[in-house]
Specification:
Layout: H1 4-9, E1 39-42, H2 60-66, E2 70-77, E3 83-86, E4 94-97, H3 98-111, E5 117-123, H4 129-139, H5 163-168, E6 173-177, E7 189-191, H6 192-195, E8 196-198, H7 227-230, E9 233-237, E10 241-244, E11 247-250, H8 255-258, H9 267-278, E12 284-287, H10 295-302
Parallel strand pairs: 1-2, 1-12, 2-5, 5-6, 6-7, 8-9, 9-12
Antiparallel strand pairs: 2-3, 3-4, 10-11
Length: 315
């Protein structure tokens, strides 16, 4: 059963605004490579509300104001052939056009010149990257978009610019597409799995008791020391599902425990497990209900800024 009290208290959620200093709120980030920063990311960032299929409590501007700098969203074609932010299908949940979502992010970037935002889009209908390009162009956000130089197959962690360089060049949007990217046609829409691998998602296990490579399929049998594994960032999927009437839905009730820094099934416990296997912290920790728990404490600690920064993999 859904936690009704938690649903009702959502309306009174207080989101603290992150101070706008340095680069993405930290002076130290200005000289750090993009690939050497851990981001807390909002899973299904556009699905907002109290219904079972909704994953966040506050809208995208509030997420960004709070300090989220990595947004993930699902896309599908709607009944009118437009790219929309839809949950599994547009009949189940349609949160509006991708173009409008990108306009919101552009507006926020316009007002925050020292910030770099990343967007990861899923391509549920296996569309061509130029279909996404139309939405990006129509939103006006393309001038902000970063386009790497060089062969993605030869890209390494050291190939990434620093946040300061991205800001100085005003290329403050980094955009990834999970499938269907074509960097020759749309150079600002990056192929996620040329740069990342991911742990399993949609888990029902509150312990998050594994950290295997789930995607891309080409790396699932690769060892942790394989060059293709070491030279990619990785996304640690840390959002929990539960079953309601036989359907898997986001686990709102236990979000504070799931999003805690320490404890059984916490962000810290899973991050320590992953880093113990792969020798580095996750670049992205993908969560539901980011405003529940200690996600920014986790982010600070994984980036080495909190008091508890000497974790077991740091030597």
């Amino acid at each position: 059963m859904l936690d009704i009290i938690d649903q009702l208290t959502r309306a009174t959620t207080h989101i603290k605004t992150q101070p706008q200093i340095g680069c993405n709120g930290r002076r130290e980030f200005c000289n750090r490579k993009y690939s050497n920063i851990t981001h807390i990311a909002t899973h299904d960032s556009s699905f907002i509300g109290v219904l079972p299929m909704e994953n966040q409590n506050v809208d995208v501007p509030a997420q960004l104001d709070a300090g989220i700098r990595f947004l993930q969203a699902q896309t599908h074609r709607n009944a009118f052939g437009k790219l929309s932010l839809c949950h599994t299908s547009c009949l189940m949940k349609d949160a509006g056009l991708l173009e409008d979502y990108l306009k919101v992010i552009k507006s926020w970037l316009d007002k925050h010149p020292q910030e770099v935002v990343t967007v990861l889009l899923t391509n549920g209908d296996q569309l061509n990257s130029t279909d996404f390009g139309h939405s990006f162009q129509a939103s006006g956000i393309v001038p902000y978009a970063y386009a790497p130089h060089g062969d993605p197959g030869k890209w390494t962690l050291d190939s990434w610019p620093t946040l300061g360089q991205l800001i100085a060049n005003n290329t403050r949007l980094v955009a990834f597409l999970d499938y269907g990217a074509n960097e020759l046609r749309t150079p600002y829409l990056l192929n996620e799995f040329s740069y990342f691998w991911e742990t399993p998602f949609d888990t029902l296990d509150p312990a998050f008791a594994q950290c295997k490579i789930d995607r891309p399929a080409s790396l699932t049998k690769a060892g942790p020391n394989a060059d293709a594994v070491r030279q990619r960032m990785y996304i640690m999927n840390h959002f929990l599902d539960t079953k309601v009437l036989g359907m898997e839905v986001p686990d709102r009730r236990d979000a504070r425990r799931t999003n805690a820094w320490r404890g059984k099934g916490s962000i810290g416990e899973q991050a320590e497990r992953c880093a113990g296997s792969y020798g580095k912290a996750p670049a992205v920790v993908l969560v539901d209900y980011f405003d529940r728990g200690e996600v920014f404490k986790a982010q600070d600690t994984l980036n080495g800024f909190a008091a508890e920064q000497r974790l077991t993999w740091s030597g």
